[in-house]
Amino acid sequence: MSKSTFFTGQPILNQLLNLIDRSSVKTLARAGQHDRYYRYFDTYTHLVTMLYCVLNKCTSSREVVSGMQACCHKLQHTGIKKAPGRSTLCDANMKRSCKVFELIYEQLYRNYRHLLPDSRTGLQPKLYIADSSTITLFQQILKAPSPGKMNGKRKGGIKVHTLMDAANDVAIQINFTAASANDMTFLKEINLDAGSFIVFDKGYVDYSQYQRLDNEGVSFVTRQRKGASYTETGTNPISAEEMEAGVRADRMITLGTRTHRKKVKLKSRLITFFDREKSREFEFLTNNLTLSALEIADLYKKRWQIETLFKRIKQNFPLKYFLGDNENAIKIQIWCAFIADLLIKLVQAQLKKRWAFSNLSSIIRLHLMSYIHLFDFLNNPEKLSAPDSRSPQLKLGGLEIGFKT
């Protein structure tokens, strides 16, 4: 075999962990007293263990523990002396608050968001997208997303409310509720800078929150619900180009209803748009009075980006099987999946060679504990296993096997 310079003194897992400041994790754990009752299995060790789980797609605590025990000599690079026991891991997932993992994710995003690619141009607004995704649970840990089946069997579900930065393609705010909870509650938790745009679907109907966003200088784009109460006050002209693209109407309206005992009268626009590809007509509601109707329709089309984020998380990380049957353990595993997603996005952004996220995740999983320089290998993966064409012999187990030519 030809010589390679890709080998390094640290496994790929540790190269990913180098992006996380260990001292900062200890500071967060100390501030919240998350290590108070643990002698060896501190927050950082817990984080490493759960990242090993989600990156390696482990489906049970036995897989995690046995896998880490099999490569215990490599764990020393990560600062872990020995693999945790199953009972220790399950106990920590149940008792250590998931809040510390949320803080780790937020700190990681703040430290490295400047390295994430920004797909905006100088003329485009700062765009955020809000939506939720339900993860079905096989036990009724949280309220079921439906009334249940005729045979009386019910499944639990957790709803992951997410706010993402459309330019960076990562989540920046995550809340959890029962699957049966209304999406409107998440809208109250969102606070954006003036001049920002936020896109969400018609499940977030709360006129008082629309008014709050408007007062804070934030433009929203959503879909109008059937039967919504409003007063039409005028119309805006439509250009021939917009008419050709599918814009049918651009009306000025005033939203008016009593929500949370407060009278809301918000000046808005109701844009009717016909999508020829889907042969469907949509009504978009926005408080922005400066962008064209076609630009508003294009902004709403970007909402599909958050659906791609949910698909990416669910396909590449184990969110069908959880290492605990309690709410805290489920939230910890979801937070670690988002941490792993952010780490891989950071790697993807720094590579010269273009990789699809799913392929990159698979390569990292297959070589997670290999002593390979991650960036050199991903930028030129063919170089590692290129055979020496000058020799017809292969070495296997110390024996030279010759092939007749």
Question: Can you summarize this structure?
Answer:
The protein is built from 15 helices and eleven strands.
General description of the model:
- There is one protein chain.
- With 405 residues, the protein is α+β, with helices and mostly antiparallel strands.
- It has a domain at 12-104 and 323-383.
- The chain is built from 15 helices and 11 strands.
- The chain has helices spanning 12-17, 22-31, 43-55, 61-70, 72-75, 86-95, 99-112, 184-187, 207-215, 240-245, 293-301, 304-316, 327-350, 357-366, 374-379; strands spanning 127-137, 156-165, 170-178, 197-199, 219-223, 230-235, 247-259, 262-275, 280-286, 393-396, 399-402.
- The strands form 2 sheets. The protein has a 9-stranded mixed beta sheet with strand order 3-2-1-4-5-9-8-7-6.
- It is elongated.
Topology readout:
Blueprint: H1 12-17, H2 22-31, H3 43-55, H4 61-70, H5 72-75, H6 86-95, H7 99-112, E1 127-137, E2 156-165, E3 170-178, H8 184-187, E4 197-199, H9 207-215, E5 219-223, E6 230-235, H10 240-245, E7 247-259, E8 262-275, E9 280-286, H11 293-301, H12 304-316, H13 327-350, H14 357-366, H15 374-379, E10 393-396, E11 399-402
Parallel strand pairs: 1-4, 4-5
Antiparallel strand pairs: 1-2, 2-3, 5-9, 6-7, 7-8, 8-9, 10-11
